[in-house]
Amino acid sequence: MSALARLLHSTGLDVQGVDSTPSPTTSGLVRDGIPAGLDAPDASLPDDRDLVIASAAVRHDHPHVLAAAERGIDVLSYPEALGRCMAARTGIAIAGTHGKSTTTAMLGCALTDAGLDPSVIVGATCRQLKSGPLSTPGEGTPTGFRLGAGEIPHGRLEGRPGLLLAEACEFNRSFHNLRPTIAVINSVEADHLDIYASLDEIIEAFAAFARLVPSKADGGVLLIAHDGAHRTKITAGLGCDIRTFGFSPAADFHIEFDPESRRVAVNHDGKRLAQWTNAMPGEHNAMNSATALITGFTAGGDPETLARSLEAFRGLDRRLQYLGKRNHVRVYDDYGHHPTEIDKTLAAIRQADDPARHGGRLICVFQPHQHSRTRFLMEEFATSFSAADIVIVPHIYFVRDSQIEKTKVSASDLVDRLRQSGVQAMHQYPFEAIAEHLEVVTRPGDLVIVMGAGPVWQVAHQFLGIGEAGESIEPKR
């Protein structure tokens, strides 16, 4: 929402907003000339507003929403508003069950370094996004937005409306509002089962998204994973150009990866298109970076420049992010909240920074995100923590689920199932207690990874003694 506000503000529109609590995000908007005040129960919609955009967290009975309805003012959701912006530009949309934010950030950085000057909206903050990794080695200002050119400056799409790159989320079918010229689908798995009744419904939702891509004659391109994306069903009857990518030699873009050296290569039409070394570990990040290069190449970027940019990419916040060390205990933070993400992330950290080499253990603090996801994917969660030595589970993060759903599963249920699978697991809450527990049980050589899409990052920050913005604070005792 903050990135969308900045994008609209950049076009000359008068934008203002409210949020439930003050935060660095709202403070940043104010610094950029966008009033962002504190929401209130009796909030009134200013008389001079022509449009209201509400995030998924805003209730239908919010005073601004009700006032807009009374005055005949349109109320758009975030994806509806983003779709209108994308329709006026050359859109690139990154879809898939996993890796959307990382791939979008990598691609945004690479396109910037390649001189294509994209506008980028990504659901995480990246220190290299504004200027590109080749200009910003890693110490830029964290941001999830970049404002680019109104016209593509060069390449095969030169002269077309400027690039707008964004994630395409399948939750609530929100990606059906987007209008991409180039679309990417990197994986399709069961998730958001509070919205979808089955995997078949999820596949159909992705197929409907793919049908939004223009015809090949109009420049529409769908890049889809050769494996793991149900591509046969999703691409049936499409009129756009379809290109596949993956580790299979049969893919149009064949990806190679050496886990030890982190060397990634992409082959196309029987030739080596590019190769580079990833800073971020794991096969999944190799796939993310290769997808970024392939998409950037499709958009007209020079593959060698894209590869150099990807090699200089140092990551984004809450994606296997190394936060620091305390008492010889290394601490990472990660957004992973789906069983597949957890399994791949823990395997990657074992390979990149195995605590056993230091005589330590891998301790994972995992906060489940949504009761419905925890209940529907319980068996998958039970087998996704095999790489961890100890798992600590706080309360399930409750956001969208109903109160009835909340009664059907608990963190203790997940802990019991993990123990049945042979994982040493425990339930503990609140976050302060977990940070204090880590002080007692950790020993030199241990590695702590805090995972989840909710506010569980606070555990890592409390244990290390750093605030939300990175300033030093006194660790919890």
Structure description:
- With 477 residues, this protein is α/β, with parallel strands linked by helices.
- The protein has 3 domains: 2-78, NAD(P)-binding Rossmann-like Domain (Rossmann fold, 3-Layer(aba) Sandwich), CATH 3.40.50.720; 89-312, Mur-like, catalytic domain (UDP-N-acetylmuramoyl-L-alanine:D-glutamate ligase, 3-Layer(aba) Sandwich), CATH 3.40.1190.10; 321-464, Protein-Tyrosine Phosphatase, Chain A.
- It is built from 16 helices and 20 strands.
- It has helices at 2-10, 24-31, 63-71, 78-87, 100-113, 199-210, 231-235, 283-298, 303-312, 339-353, 371-376, 378-382, 403-406, 411-420, 431-441, 457-464; strands at residues 17-19, 36-38, 51-54, 74-77, 90-95, 119-126, 143-146, 163-168, 182-185, 221-225, 241-246, 253-258, 263-268, 271-277, 321-326, 329-334, 362-366, 390-393, 424-427, 447-451.
- The strands form 4 sheets. Strands 7-6-8-5-9-10-11-12-13-14 form a 10-stranded mixed sheet, sandwiched between helices. Strands 15-16-20-17-18-19 form a 6-stranded mixed sheet, with helices on both faces.
- Helix 5 (100-113) packs across helix 9 (303-312).
- It is globular and about 60 Å long.
Distance between the termini: 36 Å
Structural class: alpha/beta
- Quaternary state reads single chain
Major sheet strand order:
7-6-8-5-9-10-11-12-13-14
CATH top level label of the largest domain: Alpha Beta
Tally of helical segments: 16
> What is the residue-averaged pLDDT?
90
CATH topology of the largest domain: UDP-N-acetylmuramoyl-L-alanine:D-glutamate ligase
Poorly predicted spans: 469-477
Major β-sheet annotation: 10 strands, mixed
Return Rg in Å. Answer: 22 Å
Number of beta-strand segments: 20
Percent strand: 15-25%
Count of domain modules: 3
**Helical percentage:** 25-40%
CATH architecture of the largest domain: 3-Layer(aba) Sandwich
Task: Tell me the overall shape.
Answer: globular
Within CATH, the superfamily of the largest domain carries the name Mur-like, catalytic domain
